[in-house]
Amino acid sequence: MNNLNSLLIEGIVGSNPVITTSKKGTPICIFTLISKCTFQEMDTPQEDTIEMTVEAWARVAEICDKYCMKGDSVKIIGRLKQNATDSKATVIAHSIEFRPIVRI
């Protein structure tokens, strides 16, 4: 049986991206994503906010470093990676779509 690890999430960039490189010299761009979900529970509106770390690698990291900044609205397609040291999950971004924000 094949396991599926695929993720599509939209949210706001919560921290300015930090660019670094792997031991092999591959660019890595790391930032925080904040995503809110609203739902009804017993006729009462509820909001669930999650904050997660996103890693973009190679060309996606270079694009992210150039165009992404705190407050931007983005859609990310990727996968989840479990961190061995702290048991938190990180999103590995395969694709990032920058969405326009209308500021008033």
What does this structure look like?
- It is a single chain.
- With 104 residues, this protein is mainly beta.
- It has one domain: Nucleic acid-binding proteins (OB fold (Dihydrolipoamide Acetyltransferase, E2P)).
- Helices cover 10% and strands 59% of the residues.
- It has one helix at residues 58-67, and strands at residues 7-13, 18-21, 27-41, 44-57, 73-82, 89-99.
- It has a 5-stranded mixed barrel.
- A hairpin with a 5-residue loop joins strand 2 (18-21) and strand 3 (27-41).
Note the topology.
Blueprint: E1 7-13, E2 18-21, E3 27-41, E4 44-57, H1 58-67, E5 73-82, E6 89-99
Parallel strand pairs: 4-6
Antiparallel strand pairs: 1-3, 1-5, 2-3, 3-4, 5-6
InterPro entries: NA-bd_OB-fold (IPR012340), Primosome_PriB/ssb (IPR000424), ssDNA-bd (IPR011344)
Keywords: DNA-binding
GO molecular function: single-stranded DNA binding
Portion in beta strands? over 45%
Q: Which regions have little confidence, pLDDT < 50, spanning 5+ residues? A: none
Series of secondary-structure elements, N-terminal to C-terminal = EEEEHEE
Main β-sheet description: 5 strands, mixed, barrel
Name the CATH superfamily assignment.
Nucleic acid-binding proteins
- Could you estimate the helical fraction of the residues in percent? under 10%
Output the structural class: mainly beta
Enter the CATH topology name: OB fold (Dihydrolipoamide Acetyltransferase, E2P)
Gross CATH architecture: Beta Barrel
Q: State the name of the first-level CATH class.
A: Mainly Beta
Count of helical stretches: 1
> What form results from the Cα inertia axes?
globular
Distance between the termini: 50 Å
